[in-house]
Fold these 2 entries.
Entry 1:
Amino acid sequence: MTTVSLAPAAAGAAVCTPTIRSRMRRWLRKHPTLIVGAALLSTVAALSVAAPWIASHDPQALDPLARFRPPSAEHLFGTDAMGRDLFSRTVWGGRASLSVGLLVAVLATSAGVALGLLAGFVRWAEGPVMRLMDGLMAIPDILLAIALMAVTRAGLTTVVVAITVPQVPRVVRLVRSLALSLRERQYVEAAHALGTPLPVILIRHVLPNMITPLIVQATFIAATAILIEALLSFLGVGLPPQIPSWGTMMADARNFIAIAFHAALFPGLFLAATVLSVNLIGDGLRDALDPRLARQL
Amino acid sequence: MTYVLRRVAATLPVMAVVAILVFLLIHLSSGDPAALIAGDTATAEDIARLRGVLGLDQPLWNQFLRWIGRLAGGDLGTSIFTGVPVASLLAQRLEPTLSIALLTMTLAVLVSVPLGVLAAHKAGSWVDRLVMIFAVLAFSTPVFLVGYLFIYGFAIRLGWLPVQGYVSLAKGFWPWLSHLILPCVNLSLVYIALLTRMTRATVLDVLHEDYIRTARAKGLGVVAVLGHALRNAAIPIVTTIGVGIAFLIGGVVVSETVFAIPGVGRLVIDSVQRHDYPVIQSVLLLSAGMYVLINLLIDLSYRLFDPRIRA
């Protein structure tokens, strides 16, 4: 049975490859925001991944003799108030930003899917879960993240958790509303009637139908997370000083805007470009994958 | 009337959940809250005394009831760091924050609603493209980057406006306004982006409705048609404005830091660094209360905009 059904599909895939590629190309041409976003993000990501090799200096090395140097061949982006090399700090900072964005998107989406499915398919759980989410939603996300940082010690893990918690309700609401319509579908009801266990129904029939909106949502959460990490670090309640972060760099530059504007400009531009690229990818994916969703999100 | 009562009653469970979350916040910390509040230099006796003063030696539910009881009586507690009641601490900081919030939101609405309607009216044209590109740029640019650019350009280089600080309205209108222009224009950009996108999308939707075609067919002018459309698109726009106001505190925290304005936002950050939990808890509760209240008002105002909901 398996071999019979597999064979034509495999053959079909081989025949289809060129058409798929040309369709991909046409599809990408129709969605320029996706291309611009992806190009920007891959540039930032490449620089961040390559940070240990391309950074010209130790991002934390102090050099009191070379404070506030303007951009030059020696220091591509100049140096800050403590003589630290801004180019090295900026590319290392990208690692923090992108890791936080990715981790928060994955964690918030996973937690949101679990809780949303629970609320959507388990009747007794719906009330408690949704009331909890209503409560979380009522507190502004930045404020909640700041408050969570108040009770923990600054570190990558605590920052990721503090940013994740306020984002979970957004996913839960999305998943639950999708679940409510999916559970009325005939194939789900049929699976129920056949006695298929709930976890199997969820994984085989429900989750695959949620993937598109979830990917779009996760992308927007990644953009928000990158922005909030920078805000927290900027406010002095985010990543500890030993991890270079664009937000920390912006805060360090605050008192020296008049004499060393470049110290704020470069991390700020990288941050803006990164958030913009992720938002563009989100917009592009939403429009490309599901035109109906464009009006909802 | 029953509708109003039902809506009001619906806010109670939300506030109850918020209260529990906010109460549990300091118990979330891995260590002993008393030790965390007392700081690194405190002795064991200090911590034990503080635990007694704060009632942390009582059972959890007992602490919660006492806390809720005090809140119900209007007592937000006392700041651990300054020893001043939280309510008066907040009162001192309220004027700058309210000024920023009011000015920012007014500016955002005045700019974004016409801009969104224009973009929807000219949908697909270069005007529309330009507005949308501006919106996505403004939405993605961190508040503090634009803030620094403003300070560098308008305050330091051109010297048109003060670099930072806040002057009370009591000391004159212009000194007050001049200190608020940069922070408010800065902060409003995000909301302009958000509201413009929202307005464009909803007005565009409405423009496809039959009654708009009828209005056009009977020869109604462009402005009158757009007026019709805007009124019918009002609900999502008003909702976005309302949520924007409720969440403004998040942006205000950043603005007040960039422009060194002594408002509620700065108070929150200072309190986090001092582990001054009563202050943090109060601000969380009050902003959640604001969010719930604004949402309630929006719900009720739906009936104003849409007679169909009255039934």
Entry 2:
Amino acid sequence: MSKLLLGLVWAIVAACVIFIVALPINLQTHLIAGAIVLTMMMTLKLLRPGGTWRLIALALGTAIVLRYVYWRTTSTIPPVSQLENFIPGLLLYLAEMYSVFMLALSLFIVARPLPSRAASPIDDADLPFVDVFIPSYNEEPALLADTIAAAKAMDYPQDRLTVWLLDDGGTVQKRNAVNIIEAQAAGERHEELKQLCADLGANYLTRERNEHAKAGNLNNGLANSTGQLVAVFDADHAPARSFLRETVGYFTEDPRLFLVQTPHFFLNPDPLERNLKTFDTMPSENEMFYGIIQRGLDKWNASFFCGSAAVLRREALEETDGFSGISITEDCETAVELHSRGWNSVYVDKPLIAGLQPATFASFIGQRSRWAQGMMQILRFRFPPLKRGLSLPQRLCYMSSTLFWLFPFPRTIFLFAPLFYLFFDLQIFTASGGEFLAYTLSYMVVNLMMQNYLYGRFRWPWISELYEYIQTVHLLPAVVSVILNPRKPTFKVTAKDESITVSRLSELSRPFFVIFAVLLVGVAVSAWRIYAEPWKSDVTLVVGGWNLLNLILAGCALGVVSERRQRTATRRVKVNRRCEFGHDGLWLPAMIEDVSVNGARIKVHGRKASELIALGQASLRFAPLSGGEPAVLPVNIRNSEKEGDGIAVGCQYARSAPEHHRAVADLIFANADQWTEFQQSRRRNLGVVVGTLWFLRLALFQTWRGLVYLVRGSGRSPEKTQSSMPSGARA
Amino acid sequence: MRVVLVTLLTALGLAAASAQPAPFDMTPERPAVEEAAPVPDMSEDDPRPAPTEQTQNPVPQETTPPSDVRRYLLPDGNIQLFGESSMRSWAVNLTAAQARAPARLHLRYRNAVVVAPEASRLQVLFNDVVVIDESTQSAADFATLDIEIPDDLLQAGRNEMTVRIRQRHRTDCTVQSTYELWTEIEADGTFMSFADPAASTYSSFGDLRALSADAQGQTRITIVAPAMDRNDMGADILRLAQAIALHSVQPNLAFSVAATFDQNPDRQALRVLLGSADELSSLTESALPAGATLGPVAAFMAANGDGFPTLVVSGRNRQDWQAAIEQMLGPVDRPPGTRRDALITEPWRLPNAPMVYDRRSLSFGDLGIRSTQFSGRRFTADFQFAIPPDFYAGSYGEARLLLDAAFAATVKPGSLINVYVNDNIAASLPLTSRNGAIYRQLPVKVTMRHFRPGLNQIRLEAELLTEQDEACLPGAPASDTPRFAIFDTSRFVVPDFGRIAQWPNLGAIGGTGYPYGLGSTPVALVIERDDPASLSAAANVLARVAIVSGRPVAFTLTTSADAAREQDAIFVGAINGIPAGVIAQVGVTEESRTAWMPAAGRSNASGETRVDIDDWSQQIQGSRFIAWIRDVETWFSETFGITPEMLRFVPRSQAAFVPRQDDAFLAVQGANPGNSGVWTVFTAPDGGTLAKGSAVLSKHGMWEKLAGRIATLKTDMETVAIEPASSTSFKQTLAASFTNYRLIAANWLSANILSYSLLLVLACILLGVATSALLSRLGRRR
């Protein structure tokens, strides 16, 4: 009852705000009221109050955005009598309205994200049986070994934990392929993995035919197992020891719970982070999603399955005959279906797995194309806004998640809209320079502030725009194609384990340079028009400024597609763990400073260290976090240098036995807290002003870098520059 | 009274004389209403032969046989037509006798020296038939044209007269140079002469509409009421004055009320005799109209005594003449509460101004602008419309012009179409394309900031730049190649606007006589009884209020302010004749009763053009860079002009007004003591100034300047100073509706920016709190 009353009060207040906003006040009033609102927002932001104050600041921002919408709708659309202006004008208008609508949805979702919470502990005897599925298609056995070892090492009663390697690379169909070489490779893979699983204590499972891609593979796993819960890890996502302890408890609290999802934490940078060198300082792209959006979705019981790092309930999955496979994003689709059947989901805001993400720009785009196309398919086949069984908040949440992927359209329109004016003199936005400045500027500033307010710690200013832009160029055709042929896209496994041995331009870089050149011409045209056509310099200035903004973004993107050479594909994680260094009875005390998937850096004390180092080979001995016998891990010594009273040694793992994989897994994956710490270290809110300046500097530098790569690359033939090494040969 | 009129005449004469030399006038960029008028659709065509013989030789006015009956044609004095093309139309009402009689048209004009005779033409049309089509070549002195008007051209009743001019500069091709082009038509020499003496006589009171202004553009009317000293006739006289005003609808009426004939009468358009047949027959030797001894009569005397048309309103007794007045009012009354289609302006300006009460779309054709093509540099066209007195959208409102127009390919980008509302720039639309342009229903936003109740004028000015003009080869100024066209399918679109009456707001009475013309309840009219000066002044004021309201004002005459405490009231009188407490109530200091002594003879009526640095700086162009900087400055101040006054929560309290030495006549408005109605006070230091000031202020063109809380007419009898109202009360005029309240709120909040900001912030805070409360109850909380 009080809820209803409160809802009524809220509706009345909201109607009042809309009434005030939709008053046809004059320009001065808007300008001054806008300035006052902005000042208030800034003050609130500086004081960083939480709770209600945060919502007040958001309400203030919403008011300015709505004023912009009102003005934009009532007085800026070109007259229908001028079709050449009206059509692009309407497109631009729709693109802007889409952005505002998405902003509204995100406001709803992240209005008050759920804080982190702890699952209730359960007695070992009451723990459910868990099957761990590690679906694989073409990943290297070494990588799989780490993941399987980490999964096996999870803190959970061993009799209640079964690890399954679901191999789709060694199916009967593949082994009997017409292509003899492929068939042979599949056969070898089949045997090798079978052995690996046997060594590591996991179950190997493959199937007849590669039907329904990942969903089919998982369903095959379901059909062959019996545990009450199913944990899914991608082949490159290794869980921490605490994974199941942190997640399983929720299932006993809520019998209608079908999913506990945890964030994806990546040990390697994505191409943008690598090429812009922001991985260590700036929050990753997916942190906005896992850091705040999933928490927001969780508030509305709408956090969804992201394909990996999650635990699901078999009973729920059986209700829908397993994972849904109509779309190529089976994860989200499954979640929509189960949510609509009244099942609940929970999101745990703590990185409990560490994985790899696409390293090259091309595979990054491949992955995003799959997501975009899959979400479009869900929109087409499941249409969450009208799906029966979903609650209203859930519908809005899924609407946001799926409609988000339409961003290539508005982004393209924003990119080219100024050029309509600059090149063809079309007036697609009827406003004087003054109105444009007063309304659009206040809207843009408010928009930046709101983004910063909502996501400040997780996303720095202009980075969303940059990510959207770099994806747009190649995602637009992908989205158009899936809209035209919704059933055509097929599941393609994303390659995540490439490394870049030579600095080069991405094979997908050409359009970015073309666009950059066109925008650059646009800037020249604006300058010329301001000089030559003084009678409309106000509008030209504004449109030229907009084009310049696009150019800055496009320039920064040149840096993103200029692939930087990088030796280690994965990040080193600081561990500071005691160990012993040596072999055969000679063990020196040492400290493991940091580790990566491929090697470690240790600090050795003692005079005899240099002798050992001279040998080139040694072993590390340490007590595993999972307990038990000390683990011994052979290493090759790559380099060493004297450092204070010890010697710093860089070494590479020489894994030959299953226990070596267990040791590596224990070193890097066992402790999830170190990932949290690392993430926290990047989560700083730069603020709009500093963030913008920082971005400007970054963009200038990256533009220059992109152009240098272009000049250098033009001397070489493109084939040579496109050599990427498979991950097995991790240098 | 006579002194007043003589002074007035002298002043006007001086003004006319001083206008003689080619005016070096930097101001015509924003010409006054009568100066510029729109465009002849055919002035670019080959001149059609005029249908009648033309007398090229200047005919001295004196040679006109004195026996001829003259009917002056210009409604309000000399007409000046500026620019490359200009036009003005108005209605000329003729009696049946005048229409029948053979008539000649006399026209006297001169033009600027720089007007090229071969490329310039002056046309006069009656009922759309060209009667004069001359090349203008009278730079040296006035030229007089004397033309026979074709027999069947004129009709009894309404005729349309149009003066149209096309002028080109002799040497210059700049837009600036077009401001030097003018042609002046002199009122004194422009008239119809009728050979038939019957043309000078009027018969029924319906012929009142054939009244014409004199050579000075004034219509002087004397009301003689012999019994006014004995009877309390004030109310009858004032109703009669309104009846006459509504029948004749002259731009400049001046009434004088007297008990006896003036022995040396000034020239006057009409003399009215009011009284019983007995009283009147002792007054005049001429025969009264038949029936005056039998019952109510309102008719003209057969012969014009002293040469003036004389209207007799009479009967056996007072009841009879009152009935006669009612009989006169019958045809011109309008039931209270009915809407008007238009504000009548046709005696001085055609077409009538359509009333725009709410959302309305008017085509240029309806507004009197025809499809026109134009070959000069500066095209102007204007139209008028009227809005109701409770207009309340000045702070936020935007009307739109939907232009159908075309620019030839020769016109360079950067050419402008400027839109002026009541001579204030309201929009500027640059041509941005290089190869000409065709606009179809191109929207141009026109701010309503300068709209005012009643009559409004919108002027379009297209400034056309071409390469040809930059080169300016000989003959170029006269080129006939069309550069610009505007079509009568263009529209003027007014959206729904906020409507609520405000007081004090003299603009409402200036525009449509609000609230006195509503007529639902009689207005209290407080005057000094039987004082001819007060009566004349009241007649002037009421006549004008009646004309702008389009109906007679119902009033009750009283001398006590107490009777008007809870009413709408008008006070007319010398400052000492105004009842005690009234002037303080409307916000004028009581000391002004003794302290207000206007400095006589300090008038600024010499007609000297005021020199203003802003006008100069607008004309003188600096270097391109400087000009650009200035453009940016102007743009910024025009776009974001934010004054400290806008950033005020509470309006400044207004000190009581003290009249200054150069104030001759005051119109003041305030709330009545019960704050239930409007009191308007018209006052002057003495009776003479009161009559004269009221006559001047009630002229068309002056009356519309009324605005704000106080309007003062300066001693030069030309300048009106406005004291704006800092705080106003509102009175609902329409049935309560959400849409109207919304628009009213929009306007009020646009004028009170801080209040808007506060409201918005408060609403947002509430929304934040409500959202917070709601969120803690919706969805998961943990």
